[in-house]
Amino acid sequence: MKKTLNWLDLGLIDYHDAFKIQESIIEAIRNGRMNETLLFQENTPIITLGRGSHPENLLKSPESLKKMGIKITQVSRGGDISYHGPGQLVVSPILYLENHVKGAHQYVRLLEQIMINLLSRFELTGFRIKGKSGVWIYDPSSNAEKKIAALGIAVAHGIAFHGISINLNPDLNHFKTIIPCGIEDRDVTSFKNAGVFVPDIKILRDVFIEEFNQMFGTKSQELTKLNT
Amino acid sequence: MKYDVVVPEFAEGAEEINLRQWLVEKGATVAKGDNIAEAATDKISIYIEAPADGSLTALLSEEGDRVLVGQIIGEIEA
Asked: Which CATH number goes with the domain that contains A46?
């Protein structure tokens, strides 16, 4: 029998408010009060510093960021520095790793594969670059590989959280305030920048759910009321 | 009774795991299930929990050390 997951879409939300919800879901799953959950969100502009952040990868002062309407915060996921903002879908699968994979490393690789499969549904050819996490596409106009989806997870008590962000049509100028993920020689891109059809973010969410279920042999139901 | 603090199996497959930080100090009183250390790879943070109630009596790995799945990195005296 297929395992049933919840999915919940928080819509456009402040990162901290969303993380409080994520924490309450983790606790509810840990205590057996909730199914594993795919949590979706779109954040108001914010730079997040992962546990592996290097200060030199932040290129603007806090004052300049404030003027641009971008907040900054330290977060508990792995990885370096990241930007989140409107037009970017953030997905946090909150689940027991042992229910689905052999370990965290395999899980990260499968999340990347889900992204590659998702991109192919929108006529984008995603791929991995050895030694650099996330999913990339080739940009013919600049003859360069550019990152379209970033990734960073954390695992506590066997439960994975945080996850991936997919650039649909965020303001790419906001990424210029950082060296995304600490990768200096490569740029980020988006569906819009790649010149393909830009679906509604809810369509992207639904396709992600389909691809996730396909990969992990799960089925998903919408959580209409959060009762952690 | 002594309990080992171990890098958990779900970190398996990660190419390089480093002990990023101890979240409590040596000698601290901890409860079973508390996150007491954090190990990390490039993209994964792994929280290591206390296996029992007690006192963290030994830190066998230092922050920044490379660690392996199953490695004992500390001891708790119950």
From this structure: 3.30.930.10
Residue in A106, A151, A154 closest to B45 by CB: A154
Identify whether A228 is part of a domain: no
Put simply, the answer to whether A153 touches B12 (Cβ < 8 Å) is no
- Give all domains of chain B, ordered by start, each with its CATH number: 2-77 (2.40.50.100)
A152 with B43: Cβ contact below 8 A: yes
Summarised one tens digit per residue, pLDDT across range A14-37 is: 999 999 999 999 999 999 999 999
Residue A79 lies in a domain: yes
Rounded to two decimals, the ipTM of the complex is 0.89
Which residues in chain A touch residue B50, judged by CB atoms under 8 angstroms apart? none
Catalytic annotation on A181? yes
> Which two three-digit tokens encode residue B17?
């795991």
**Closest residue of B to A75, CA-based?**
B45
Domain count, chain A: 1
* A227 in a structural domain: no
CA distance A214 to A217: 5
Please write the tens of the pLDDT for every residue from A150-182: 998 999 999 999 999 999 999 999 988 888 666
